Target: protein acetyllysine N-acetyltransferase
Amino acid sequence: MAHGVSDEYKKEHFDSKIKLEKKLDQLAEWIRSAKHFIVFTGAGVSTSTGIPDFRSGMDTVLSTGPGAWELRDNRAKTPKNAKVLNDMHKAIPSVTHMALVELQRRNIIKCVISQNCDGLHLRSGLNPDCLAELHGNMNLEICSKCGANYLRDYDAATGGLDHLTGRKCDKPECRGLLKDSTINFGENLPRSEKSKAFRHANQADVCLALGSSLSVTPAADVPERVAERNQKLIIGNLQRTCLHKMSSLNIYAFTDTIMEGVMKRLNITIPPWILRRCVRFQIKHEKLNNCYQILIEGRDSDKDLPFSMFKSIIVKTPKSEYLLKKEPFSISIDMNVQDTKNEAKIQLQLNFFEHYNEIPYLLEYPLEDINEEFYLFWNPTTGVWVRKERADENLTQ
Ligand SMILES: [Zn+2]
Model:
């Protein structure tokens, strides 16, 4: 494992237009005929979203400026003109992220193996079954006792050695301490993600490594395994990588340029990114006390996981208004003290974390037994929520 890289490996290269076209033709051809195509990603796939990488040199062409470790080693600060997000949660998945989502939806990509813990692959809509996050995910917490997973729409990474987040497992029978899932340097990779990654590396006949210096092991052993098996390893990166001599093809271009070119050749449109949210809502009448129990939960739409996506929820009944500030978002409405002359209804205002300027979503329900799950899609370019009953309905409508 290495932190810094030598100057030779900091130099950025760009293929000429003609050279690049030829390389992309070749890459598209290999993807088209691949039996088991996998993609390995590093920080370079996220720099165009405004998240800086680690190793780019002081004179990088990247709009995010020099990498974090380069700044540290040079005791420098991020240049004023650098386009760096102050909050990684505001990052909109890149062309590369969305191209990978579409290739995975079409079963062309069998697995994306990532070193990134920025959570963008999941947020872009990639199926978690086809993703191995070797260095964890800053939005994911794991119960140290029962292993339950919890997704958060905020940074759950503590950076601490014990990884404890201070929160506890929701399961009443467990209540184990929750730990963040990000991997610090020197720590072992999560076993399940590592074995998934190597299982695919052992099957892959084509592996595309994007935006990684391939210098951090054991993660970089994944693309290396493909090359060792004499299968095709294609590397797309601005800098020369540690595996450039082992690869079948080295492409020197931005990863977005590479993926745009490849998708064009494959005749596949790159879909726009749309934020997906899954909401579970429940009203239950308890006859004995004449009260209504209300529960609102955020869920992950791919896996059946709890997902903390509400900053707060306002519940309005005919007579009162309640502000719920933390999970679980539940409330009991006592009908003995409610004015029920009018038809009893409740109104809900779901307030999100607003990373993408999501506006509150309003709901109205009659007070009766209800148990439903629905999906909300937020298109940051149009600024409207669209409600769907299924996750896979056409998102662009
Ligand atoms: Zn637990």
